[in-house]
């Protein structure tokens, strides 16, 4: 989707009513590029202009920071799942041994 590619390249935020097109477009772009511009979905009852006038830079920055943290949490969870799968058939290390090996005792 050209709008999302442009917004991502220019580090812009997309403000839209169009959930039905933007969500699949966002998923496709994330699959292809691994990143996508933030998308602010607004209800049809509000005009994009009025919403844009009410949004502050601080609010956007706070929301982007929150979303980045969430993405990092999801990436950590994916890595943990992969590690669990890789080690599924290996024997567990007793906790006492772990603490000694790490010098925690």
Please write out the topology.
Layout: H1 2-9, E1 14-16, H2 19-33, E2 39-41, H3 48-54, H4 57-86, H5 95-101
Parallel strand pairs: 1-2
Structural write-up:
- The chain folds into two domains: 1-47, no CATH class; 56-88.
- The chain is mainly alpha-helical and 105 residues long.
- The longest helix is centred in the last third of the chain and has 30 residues, at 57-86.
- Helix 2 links the parallel strand 1 (14-16) and strand 2 (39-41).
- The protein is built from five helices and two strands.
- It has helices at residues 2-9, 19-33, 48-54, 57-86, 95-101; strands at residues 14-16, 39-41.
- It is 64% helix and 6% strand.
Helix content: 55-70%
Strand content: 5-15%
The major beta sheet can be summarized as: 2 strands, parallel
Average pLDDT: 89
Give the uncertain stretches in residue-range form: none
Q: Which structural category do the helix and sheet elements fall into?
A: mainly alpha
Provide keyphrases for this structure.
105 residues, mainly alpha, 2 strands, 6% strand
Summarize the structure.
The protein contains 5 helices and 2 strands, in the order H-E-H-E-H-H-H. With 105 residues, the chain is mostly helical.
